[in-house]
Amino acid sequence: YNKGLEHYAKSEFKEASELFKKAIQENPTSDAFYNLGNAEFSLGKTQEALDSWQSSLKLKERSDAHVNVANVLALKLGKTEKALVHYQKAIILEPQDAEIRYNHAVVLESLSKLEQAAQEYQECRKLGMDVDKNLRNVLAKIAGKLSK
To answer: Across residues 23-34, what is the average pLDDT?
Structure first.
């Protein structure tokens, strides 16, 4: 497992992937599956990465795996509704993580769930993230809908 991390740190993703697979055969842990997913994703193997992150989540709920799954579902596969579930689970695990909340807000906004997006942007602001422009834009969209 540790050798896999070393190879991953050097951007040697194929080697890292093989070493994480060996580690999983010996001791299947959430961390090993998570890192295998990262290596597979870096190799362009999107479905294999998703499968590994899902295996990681079966062993242990973790925000980083939920975020990776959500990002791939939303940005690569266009499955934004499914992505929302994973962002919500990540927020439950890490409620003070502004970046997770921001990604969640962006996806909500893309689905025209504007009131929810505005709430998430406000949470981001409370957590110190500069989202004034995003919040202004989504509030303008809400005002536009109300004026129709």
So the answer is: 98
Nearest in space to 21 (alpha carbons), one of 38, 7, 4, 6: 4
Query: Mapping DSSP to helix (H, G, I), strand (E, B) and coil, where does residue 10 land?
Result: coil
- First and final CA of the chain: distance in angstroms? 58
Distances (CA, A) of 148 to 59, 141, 145: 49, 11, 6
Q: Cα separation of 2 and 14, whole Å?
A: 15
In sequence order, which residues have a C-beta less than 8 Å from that of residue 57 and are 6 or more positions away?
30, 65, 66, 69
Is the pTM higher than 0.85?
A: yes
Closest CA to 104 of 127, 78, 124: 124
Half-sphere exposure of 37 (CA within 13 A, CB side): 23
